[in-house]
Amino acid sequence: MAAMRAMIVKEFRELVRDRPTMALLIVPPLVLLIVFGYAANFTVHNINVEVMGPAAARVAPHFAAPLGVSRVDPGATRADAVAALRKSKADVVVVTSDSGPPVALVDGSSLFTAQSAVPMLHQVPGLQVEVLFNPALKTSWWMVPALVGLIMTFIGTIVTSLGLVRERQAGTLEQLAVMPLSPADVIIGKIAPYFLLAAVNMVVVTALGALLFGVPFAGNVGMFAVGSALFLLVVLGLGVLISTVSQTQAQAIQSALILLLPQIVLSGMIFPLAAMPWGVRWIGYLLPLTYYIEISRGVMLRDAPLNALWLAMLVLVVMAVLVLGTAILRFRRDLAPNVKQAKHHAANRVTSTS
Questions:
Q1: ∠ CA(229), CA(231), CA(232), 5° rounding?
Q2: SS3 letters for the chain?
Q3: Are 150 and 125 members of one domain?
Q4: Does residue 214 belong to any structural domain of this protein?
Q5: Does residue 107 lie within any of the structural domains?
Q6: Do 302 and 107 touch, CB atoms closer than 8 A?
Q7: 149/170 same-domain check
Q8: What percent of the chain has pLDDT over 90?
Q9: What is the pTM of this model?
């Protein structure tokens, strides 16, 4: 019994000292509790409605919360209404005329907002409802653009960090230290293959989504590629950062999962951000996947123009600069001991040969 008790105490002390494992035991359960307790809500309670056309002033009073009218424009046309939806300025735009019934155009690319809005709109007398960008409100159309980002996140964080930690365990950092390479050169050289791998996966998943589920690609391919490249730089930088704080591959996996879980549940991939309370929603605005999903859904489903997605692009640029800059600084710090060690070994070899 004494030996068993000593073994239990020993294992408990080692577990307490293993900070990544303790974090994995504590953080994910708390995140799951908070997220599924407060954020797991598919019902959107605030729906932004704009009313356009010559009879806009007469029709607007028929809408009550949660269908909140934010703008009334008697001079706008149906083309203006479609443009407002394409730029994500509104969830619903009601187009009126002097003769015919008003028509409510609904942004189907915001799946759960549309699912909440359509039944309410059918209750408005004399109103016709038309869903754009996802007419059948298919869940696959909503999920595939987000899954593209999730796959790139998986490769960028978990796969990249595992590869770099494996090199640390194999002792190849010492070899890199004596080569005429800067930390930036090393990082670029290390992440380039993962960048290409993730880019290929992005193309494959996007193509399969179109072939298997009929997901459209309505927008500009170049804009989609630029947004994807910016997002990849961010998640690859996160992978490098994880590798600098992990001594083993197990620690790298644990750290990557801690970062990956919030991105799945708080980015708008599954639960709409509009349905989350502000106390949880703000976390989503700190996650790169949130902005990539905005870009991918906007380009693929709505053919959103650049002036509707520039802010998401800018946020990813800032994140890429901050994350990669921090990764280079930490990687330089990790290389410093290896440089000294490599020089010491080289000096010893010279001494021994002489």
A1: 65
A2: CHHHHHHHHHHHHHHHHCHHHHHHHHHHHHHHHHHHHHHCCCCCCCEEEEEECCCHHHHHHHCCCCEEEEEEECCCCHHHHHHHHHCCCCCEEEECCCCCCCEEEEECCCHHHHHHHHHHHHCCCCCEEEEECCCCCCHHHHHHHHHHHHHHHHHHHHHHHHHHHHHHHHCHHHHHHCCCCCHHHHHHHHHHHHHHHHHHHHHHHHHHHHHHHCCCCCCCHHHHHHHHHHHHHHHHHHHHHHHHHCCCHHHHHHHHHHHHHHHHHHCCCCCCHHHCCHHHHHHHCCCHHHHHHHHHHHHHHHCCCHHHHHHHHHHHHHHHHHHHHHHHHHHHHHHHHHHHHHHHHHHHHHHHHC
A3: no
A4: yes
A5: yes
A6: yes
A7: yes
A8: 46
A9: 0.84
CA pair distance 335, 219, nearest whole angstrom: 44
In this structure, the chain runs to a length of 354
Instruction: Kindly state whether residues 182 and 261 are assigned to the same domain.
Output: yes
Tally of structural domains, the chain: 2
Q: Same domain, yes or no, for 145 and 125? A: no
Residues 339 and 196 in one domain: yes
Mean local confidence (pLDDT), 116-141:
93
Q: Is residue 335 part of a domain?
A: yes
Domain edge (last residue) among 108, 132, 156: 132
Q: What is the pLDDT of residues 187-226, one digit of tens each?
A: 777 788 888 888 888 899 899 989 999 999 999 999 999 9
Range of the domain at 55: 47-132
